[in-house]
DNA sequence: GCCTCCATTTTTGCATTCATTTTTTGTCTT
DNA sequence: AAGACAAAAAATGAATGCAAAAATGGAGGC
């Protein structure tokens, strides 16, 4: 009997604080859902590994009923898969799955940009500009981590500017699914592609200033498509980092 | 004690045929999920109505455990909402919710068109052309029902041509959420708008033939945006429109 | 007559229990 | 020793039981 989950043995915190991250903060199964989702998204369970309910139960300090409810939801979200009578597994994402997910993300951000052009305020644009220049600073200092953090903030700002909660939620869902890979992809960002990504961000900002919806939509899609290529290439070639030849980035 | 659900009293069919509409066809809770989803999507439960678990249980002929699992999933899908300690309600969609949903649908179809341009075959385009002319026939005969049916087939063909299962699933999810309203929206489409829609479909087909991804993306978004306007206007002007009793379509 | 407060009933949330399926393990045969 | 079969163990799927919260209803007070 091999344990798929590292024996952290951290019981769930009693219903103390309502960590209102998503929904259903109060109920036990809601808390379990949040914790389990984070647990899976953060990659604490190996891909494709079997996850015995009993083990998760004692890890979280609950009975099987709320756990199974949470598992059903996570399966609906696409994070895990439930094989009939054979338990839950962390969903293994094939290369094709990743391509699809990145494309949908690209479509959602493309949509966000289009919608943002309709109602975004000058102040919001100014805020994004500030982020942009901050990011540029990180770029000049070759501070990849800082760059990535601001980069994500910019993309989230655009999604927020779309003023569409449904879109925001959906976007967050997909972001969670590929978060693990996203990190690898970001670490794969290399010099040359980095410059390209900066130029694309310039174009994004420019289109946003002019409220050019269709144009921004196109640019964002292409920008994310390039991200996709970087991520897929990175995964395809394995763990070794090829510095010169791979077109990776942002 | 008022019963929110019409007393159909139809017990769930024993695990006979695997109606593999979505996922989890075999297990009882999977069957329940499919049945409940259809039941809600088809509008058998009034919006915002309280749904006692016990009642659903005896309606489906099961115990509360699988039912509650299905409810959690439906809540995650956005079809119902679960208030802590206060049961499940059919999610009431505000006008703003509908606008958001339509916009996301528009974004997804826009993405589908963009992706379709990359790999769509001449045969697939020819099939869509045939559907187009068939739809045109319905238009000339003022056969609204036939028109909508083919119209839906065309949009689904475009989504299929995108060759992205993730997108397809997500699209189906959102389509389910607004199906109820969608039908009213179609009836709201008046003569003049009908002609517009036909012209837009001509443009869609034209862009598709030329594999003009960005252009098709724009046209599809606008096309769906116009649909949205029709739906929202219709709902705004007719508050007496009983959504529960309207049949399903488009 | 209407409102308030409290007891009763119902309903929800979770734990536990039971039945079925899968997986493991041990033994026997070739 | 390797494979096949069978029994045991464990895990899953679903039903039931129990405590807590909410809804209901009625008596009493204003």
Element layout with pairings:
2 copies of one chain form a homodimer.
Chain A: H1 28-41, E1 50-51, H2 53-60, H3 64-77, E2 80-83, E3 87-90, H4 95-119, H5 122-140, H6 144-161, H7 165-177, H8 179-187, H9 191-209, H10 213-237
Antiparallel strand pairs in A: 1-3, 2-3
The structure holds a DNA duplex (30 and 30 nucleotides).
Tally of DSSP β-strands of chain A? 3
Largest sheet of chain A: 3 strands, antiparallel
Going by CATH, the architecture of the largest domain in chain A would be Up-down Bundle
Give the assembly state of these chains. Answer: homodimer
Short characterization:
With 250 residues, the first copy, chain A, is mainly alpha-helical.
Description:
The structure is a homodimer of 250-residue chains. The first copy, chain A, contains ten helices and three strands; from the N terminus they run αβααββααααααα. The first copy, chain A, has 250 residues and is mainly alpha-helical. Chain A has two domains: 92 residues, Winged helix-like DNA-binding domain superfamily/Winged helix DNA-binding domain (Arc Repressor Mutant, subunit A); 143 residues, GntR ligand-binding domain-like (Four Helix Bundle (Hemerythrin (Met), subunit A)), CATH 1.20.120. In chain A, strands 1-3-2 form a three-stranded antiparallel β-sheet. In chain A, α1 crosses α3, α4 crosses α6 and α5 packs antiparallel against α9. The radius of gyration of chain A is 20 Å and the shape is elongated. In chain A, 38% of the residues are buried. At the A-B interface, α3, α4, α7 and α10 of A face α3, α4, α7 and α9 of B. Chain A binds a DNA duplex (30 and 30 nucleotides) through α3.
């Amino acid at each position: 009997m091999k344990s798929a989950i590292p024996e952290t043995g951290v019981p769930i915190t009693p219903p103390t604080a309502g960590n209102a991250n998503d929904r259903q903060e109060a109920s036990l199964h809601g808390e379990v859902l949040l914790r389990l989702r984070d647990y899976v998204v953060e990659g604490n369970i190996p891909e494709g590994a079997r996850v015995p309910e009993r083990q998760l139960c004692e890890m979280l300090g609950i009975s099987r009923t709320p756990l199974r409810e949470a598992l059903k939801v996570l399966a609906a979200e696409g994070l895990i898969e439930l094989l009939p009578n054979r338990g839950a597994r962390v969903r293994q994402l094939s290369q094709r799955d990743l391509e699809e997910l990145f494309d949908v993300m690209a479509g959602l951000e493309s949509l966000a940009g289009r919608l943002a052009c309709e109602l975004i305020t000058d102040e919001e644009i100014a805020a994004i500009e500030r982020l942009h220049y901050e990011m540029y600073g990180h770029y000049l200092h070759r501070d990849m981590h800082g760059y990535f953090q601001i980069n994500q903030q910019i993309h989230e700002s655009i999604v927020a500017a779309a003023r569409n909660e449904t879109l925001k939620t959906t976007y967050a869902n997909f972001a969670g699914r590929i978060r693990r890979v996203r990190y690898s992809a970001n670490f794969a960002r290399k010099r040359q592609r980095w410059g390209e990504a900066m130029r694309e961000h310039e174009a994004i900002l420019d289109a946003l200033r002019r409220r050019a919806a269709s144009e921004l939509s196109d640019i964002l899609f292409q920008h994310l498509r390039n991200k996709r290529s970087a991520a897929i290439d990175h995964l395809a070639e394995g763990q070794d980092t090829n510095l010169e030849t791979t077109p990776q980035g942002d």
